Amino acid sequence: MPQINTILNRAEKSFQSWRHLSFKERGLFMKKAAVILKTNKDQYARLMAQEMGKPFTQGQSEIEKCVFVCDFYAEHAEFFLTPEPVRSEASNSYVTYEPLGVVLAVMPWNFPFWQVFRCAVPTLMAGNAVVLKHASNVCGCALAIEKIYKEAGFPPALFSNVFVSSSKVIDLIEHPFVRAVSLTGSTGAGKSIATHAGAVLKKTVLELGGSDPYIILEDADLESAVETCVNSRLINGGQSCISAKRFIAVTSIFKEFEERFTAKMQMQRMGPPLNEGVNLGPMARHNLRDQLHRQVDKSAKQGAKLLLGGAIPLGPGAYYPPTVLTRVRPAMTAYQEELFGPVAALIEAADEQEAIQTANDTVFGLGAAVFTRDIKKGERIAVQELQAGCCFVNEAVKSDPRLPFGGIKQSGYGRELAESGIREFINIKTVYIK
Ligand code: NAP
User: Is 241 tagged catalytic?
Assistant: First the structure.
């Protein structure tokens, strides 16, 4: 508790001065953070490779995205949070967007920089302070991020780490200086945090797990669909909430999709993440790899057909090969659970209607995609049929600072990024002057 108290007292103190700065002043600090990120891009990419196995070039792209989000909110925060006049009987009435105070960010290891910046940048630009409880296996990344904010000249402890185990998160949530909580992580952690925050009436934003379905219709451009599906399944070693996880192809093209998809999965280069040309590193931890393998094994025993991979390689490192399970059906593990690694579940659907039903037949609702040459049809399916927070047509689901990001159902609630994201941790204040 003394460590927690000290950190939160310092964060609260910095918040009290930070909240009075103009957006322009805050933006200057954020732009400095962007420059530091850019300057040290390779160093951070190496750190991620060492701590959680991300291939070096993917780490570089992650840092570039962090630069983008810093610049984006430095330039747009004021526009998103400009007070809005409202006509009433008052001489003057309007809505203003005021910061809340210290926001607790509980973050995962899979995109150790991006997840933190995605949450922290809009939160800070809105005038809040952020205390980060990062995942225990990426402490080096947590320290590097804290240093970036320090070197960019942000007030001391306006952004700071707290190194505690997940069981101590409750103490943080209950602390009077913590005004709200943002979690990116598993659905289990989301339920626990929502329960505790609910008990003390603190707002939460929850970005949780997913089992994104990609529908491939008869008239899809198969070559491009296969390329996009494989890339989305394997990005970050398949350890992404918005990796494509279930591939639902209609009967008329199922066989061809299955063959092309499996061939492409087979072509990937697995190896040490710092080696050139490697696009699939080891998984982040042995226990996660072993859990994924158990899911594959179980699905095969339940009747799914293993077309590729599915065996733990000999030797050191938590490697798991690109794996394809086909003929996956309802009630099988690969159909129902999130596969957080390089394992694809292929599902055959009789027609478009069955494909949509299968896509929605999940407890999750984060992302979804549909592949078809008929753009109008794709748009209708994305808008009216798919039950997910982010629905894409002929493209892999991805996050972008300009577009809101988040899920429904057991994938969580609230939004990050864009205007919606910066409006999560603010007091929408009504001002009425007679
Ligand atoms: P995780 O085990 O839930 O951990 C995420 C963070 O929560 C870590 O800091 C962890 O701390 C902490 N934590 C775990 N259990 C907790 C609890 N009961 N109470 C409070 N804090 C707790 O998830 P992960 O394995 O790191 O990440 C993978 C999961 O995150 C996947 O399900 C993935 O889909 C999801 N994810 C979602 C998004 C999204 O935007 N929707 C993005 C990325 C990942 P420790 O490390 O100390 O345990």
Answer: yes
